Amino acid sequence: MLATNYNKHFYRNLDIIKNGIYLYFFLLIFEGALRRWVLPGLSDLLLIVRDPIALFILYQAWRNHLLIFNGYLIAFFGIALVSFFTAILVGHGNWIVALYGVRIIVIHLPLVFIIGSLFDSNDVLKIVRWMILISIPMTILIVIQFYSPQTALINKGLAGNTDGGGFSGALGYFRPPGTFSFILGVSLFYGFASCFVFYALLNPVGLSSLTIYFGLVAVLLSIPFSISRSLLFSILLSYVFFLSTVYSNRKLFWRMLFISVLMIVTFIFVSNASLVSTGLEVFFSRFSDANENEGGLISGVIGNRFLGGLYEAIATADQRPILGMGIGMGTNAGAKILTGSSDFLISEGEWGRIIGEIGPLFGILFILLRVLISFSLGVRSFREIKFGNSFSWILFSNVLITFSQAQWAQPTALGFSVFFTGILFASLKKQH
């Protein structure tokens, strides 16, 4: 009887934690909607609306002995502890800013391992279904935002800003934020949604073929109406990883060829509609302008934003204070507290921010840990393909980018990185 009661209590607590994780997911998707439309007066506070949820999950997992302090977590926590004190003693000296920076490591990062440990295959498939289902109305929303003036209610900015929430695009059109605070959320959302759509095209996920097809159309339409090269790159990356899974099963070749042809035909068909042709014209104009100023998709997005920023951060590390300028200082919120302005005080790039905040010694260690985890996930995901688990490898395409170098100082990027890396960990549980 005691054992039965204990099991009931344990599984009840497990459900509570899982519900907290699902709440974290939905707040990640709709946080911007809360800040822009529902509670604009609380916009600044809602920036960290997921923090108490993450803290609750962390506490419940620790209380129920479900938080395992592996080597990675111990190292991360150690860096966070040292960085907090160095920020106070030799850095910016503001404990509120230091706590804001430390919370990224102490509150959010452990969720990667908690989600990976507690979620099973059914939970993973639920997220797949939700992402595909949400992508359909999300695309309808960004199309409406695309064609609506920035003064329209649907484009209202943060804290009720009537200047609009869109970001500069091309030909007088703006990059729509969807349900997010900024265009970054749209780019991250569709990058991961494309992983799930591509997987669902070949594998049962509990959705009808028609729904999956609509999800595919939604992902394809997001490319022109987002006016985002980063979004295009994320979708292309997941598609390349999707195609690469054919190596373990040659029989999939013809199905993938059919899907590829279907995508091309669908895109050509919808692009002939005047509603879509305008979006394509704007996208290609933005693409051309950005190529002239920043280089092409490869040199601009990968070379300048990714590899260039990473190289610059490491190459200039010796110019930073050995213990850094103080954790939290490189975030927009930290900058606003310290100076009254949200302008970047250290670096807009993630690796540059980390090294600038906590110094080259601990900064490079922190970066290496993130890269090591990403590399380990890549190796494990690739090995799973031969067991018929292509999901992990396709999902890894976007986890690789977000976990290794996404701007964790930005709450939306942090949320997507943490949550979907956790989903990837969960998908790697032995099913064979």
Q: Which keywords apply here?
A:
432 residues; mainly alpha; two-stranded antiparallel ribbon; globular
Note down, in words, how this protein is organized.
The protein is mostly helical and 432 residues long. It has 17 helices and 2 strands. It is globular. It starts with a helix and ends in a 5-residue tail after the last helix.
Low-confidence stretches: none
Biggest pleated sheet: 2 strands, antiparallel
Helix content: over 70%
Count of distinct strands: 2
Average pLDDT for all residues:
89
How many whole angstroms does the radius of gyration measure? 22 Å
How far do the termini sit from each other?
Answer: 34 Å
**Basic shape:** globular
Query: How many separate domains?
Result: 1
Major β-sheet strand ordering: 1-2
Strand percent estimate = under 5%
Q: Which class do the helix and strand fractions yield?
A: mainly alpha
Secondary structure topology:
Elements: H1 2-38, H2 43-46, H3 50-63, H4 71-89, H5 95-108, H6 110-118, H7 121-147, E1 167-170, E2 173-175, H8 183-200, H9 209-226, H10 229-244, H11 252-271, H12 274-294, H13 297-315, H14 332-339, H15 350-384, H16 391-405, H17 411-427
Antiparallel strand pairs: 1-2
Helix pairs in contact: 1-3, 4-5, 4-15, 5-14, 6-17, 7-8, 7-9, 8-9, 8-10, 8-16, 8-17, 9-10, 9-11, 9-12, 10-16, 12-13, 13-15, 15-16, 16-17
